[in-house]
Amino acid sequence: MTVSDPVVEEVVSTIGRSATEIRQGLIGRRGTVDEENPSGETQAEADVWADDLLADRLGEIDGVGEYASEERADVIDCGDDPAASDAYAVAVDPLDGSSNLKSNNAMGTIFGVYDDALPARGEALVAAGYVLYGPITTMMIATEETVAEYELSGGERTVVDDDVTLPDEPVVFGFGGRVPDWPDDFREYAREIEDELKLRYGGALIGDVNQVLTYGGTFGYPGLQSRPEGKLRLQFEGNPIGYVVERAGGRSSNGDRSLLSVQPDDLHDRTPVHVGNDELIDRLEAALE
Ligand code: F6P
Ligand code: MN
Asked: What is the CATH number of the domain that holds 42?
């Protein structure tokens, strides 16, 4: 199953082919380098390596005008201006959850294809998705047409579900941040959810969101008392994940409205992120009012 827009298809097939290599290349790259990313996090060797690999390959696709990632300060110009032409901008979190490298737990690669110059609103996305490096490597691709899940093996992408839909009945939840650092209104909401759903939190956004898409429920990384803007990045994490979950029939929110409607100020803006079944995100927004 291919994506109908040829540039988007080239982007997703390049990421799909690279994922098998990225997974293999994690071996021997579990150490840290002596650098921080633009969000002030220590970079793993694998973060820098995966970013360079994706920048080279995605940047040379005809029709990709900009490449940006969580691991570099500025947007790379690699073609026409996406704001003034048919070209797209690709934003990537090359290795989401890379702190899980040390403990050998799930990680991902997240991408968003924007029909606008970066930073852009999520409403400008024409496709988004992620690779999950779990026991097997899977890829979720959301477009205006559909959300589909694939298995990746040896550079090949095989569809396993061509119509991924969030289950109606919520089952799991995962909330990031330390409980004493949660604002009181979020803590009250979380207490209710804890009574109703089963905790699943693995410390990699992609692993946790994929559980929500599989079983139904909600993932949240809220604004904290010490950091009201939360931890996750709007361009590289919040928007792509919000797009996937909304296309699969759920909702996304920054606590107030859809993540996709948030106007960014800066490429590396952070945002509270909440995704999941409509009813749960409605309740969350009511609790935070
Ligand atoms: O990319 C940031 C990230 O690693 C996400 O993948 C994950 O959801 C979150 O941080 C985990 O943060 P914490 O270690 O605070 O639970
Ligand atoms: Mn990440």
From this structure: 3.30.540.10
Nearest by Cα to 222 from 269, 268, 285: 285
Q: How far is the CA of 203 from the centre of ligand 1 (A)?
A: 5
Nearest-atom number in ligand 1 for the CA of 107 is 6
Per residue in 214-259, pLDDT (tens digit) is: 999 999 999 999 999 999 999 999 999 999 999 999 999 999 999 9
Q: Atom 15 in ligand 1: which residue has the minimum CA distance?
A: 177
Ligand 1 centre to CA of 86 (Å) is: 34
Report the SS3 class of residue 82.
coil
The confidence band for 155, taking pLDDT boundaries of 50, 70 and 90, is confident
189: CATH: 3.40.190.80
Distance 43 CA to ligand 2 centre (A): 12
Which of ligand 1's atoms lies nearest the C-alpha of 177?
15
Number of helices followed by number of strands (H, E) in the chain: 7, 17
Question: pLDDT digit string (tens) for 84-139?
Answer: 999 999 999 999 999 999 999 999 999 999 999 999 999 999 999 999 999 999 99
Domain limits at 151?
Answer: 6-161
pTM: 0.98
Q: What distance in angstroms lies between residue 25's CA and the mean position of ligand 2's atoms? A: 18
Answer for the pair 80, 65: CB distance below 8 angstroms, yes or no.
yes
State whether 67 and 207 are in the same domain.
Answer: no
Q: Which of 28, 22, 21, 109 is nearest to 69 (CA)?
A: 109
For ligand 1, whether the C-beta of 205 sits within 6 Å is yes
